[in-house]
Amino acid sequence: MSKPKVAFICVHNSCRSQIAEALGKKFAGDVFESYSAGTETKPQINQDAVRLMKQRYGIDMEATQHSKLLSDLPPIDIVIKMGCNVVCPYLPSRYSEDWGLDDPTGKNDEEFMAIINQIEVNVKKLVETIKSTNLNL
């Protein structure tokens, strides 16, 4: 049985979706494959996200991830929209959710960590959803 491919998407693929990809790999790598992408790219991942993810989880997102376009992704089974506050990008999939998360860019570390913590909770909930439903391929 192959693992479903999950894409965490937002507009710029520089912060929340990158965090979700990294936490998906850390906490759910045995259940699904994690990807992230957007309709636009940024030259680098949000540096506050990079710093806080290294600090909290020891994950160096810059070593293994970069900003990608939706067209860079393989066929995706599950799409998770981060909460775009505009029209979220569309990507065909068998299942999708919108996590409706605020963009922490430019906010203080406490607000940033609250979003990171929520992403971790959501990733773990997604694992349970996949395990308990027919979302597994």
Automatic annotation (TrEMBL):
<dbReference type="InterPro" id="IPR036196">
    <property type="entry name" value="Ptyr_pPase_sf"/>
</dbReference>
<keyword id="KW-0059">Arsenical resistance</keyword>
<dbReference type="Pfam" id="PF01451">
    <property type="entry name" value="LMWPc"/>
</dbReference>
<feature type="domain" description="Phosphotyrosine protein phosphatase I">
    <location>
        <begin position="4"/>
        <end position="129"/>
    </location>
</feature>
<protein>
    <submittedName>
        <fullName>Arsenate reductase ArsC</fullName>
    </submittedName>
</protein>
<dbReference type="InterPro" id="IPR023485">
    <property type="entry name" value="Ptyr_pPase"/>
</dbReference>
